[in-house]
Amino acid sequence: MKNTILFVLCGAAIFMTGCSTLKKSDLTAVQGTWKGRIVQGEPAHECSIVISGTNYDFHDITDPNVWYKGTFSLREDTTPRQYIAVVNECPFPQYVGKTSMAIYRLENGTLTIAGNEPGIATAPAAFDAPEAARMELKRK
After folding, report:
1. Residue 87 and residue 65 in contact, taking contact as beta carbons nearer than 8 Å
2. Residue 114: strand pairing partners
3. I want to staple 95 with a disulfide (CB 3.0 to 4.6 A). Which of 47, 99, 118, 135 is the partner?
4. Integer angstrom CA distances of residue 25 from 9, 30, 75, 112, 120
5. Architecture of domain 25-139 in this structure
6. Cα–Cα distance between 67 and 140 in angstroms, integer?
7. For the whole prediction, is pTM greater than 0.85?
8. Distances (CA, A) of 119 to 14, 37, 66, 97
9. For residue 44, how many C-alpha atoms fall within 13 Å in the half-sphere facing its CB?
């Protein structure tokens, strides 16, 4: 009995130590204010996105009439990883309540998101997919 308890406690200690060295989740890594540009399409537009918890607030700085607010979830178990956004508010009534499927990556301090128009049920196949809008952002 004592050996079993010792084994369980040692196992828990090893597990807890291992947990502290694990990579933090992408949800934690994307929190904050990001600024960059929409690079797919002509001309490139400056943009920003604020991520707080599972809420996002996107603004096209070049065209202030384009903005989106809503909630999102991340799928870190897919390749590429997916960013799934629900549009709660925007100036385009046809998009309110719709889901926008996107892919994302975090590399060298850059957050890249490529997404399809809200209402399209699939995510882009690649970051350079012709139908996708792609943003490249740096933490502000």
Report:
1. no
2. 103, 134
3. 118
4. 26, 9, 11, 16, 27
5. Beta Barrel (2.40)
6. 18
7. no
8. 46, 23, 17, 9
9. 9
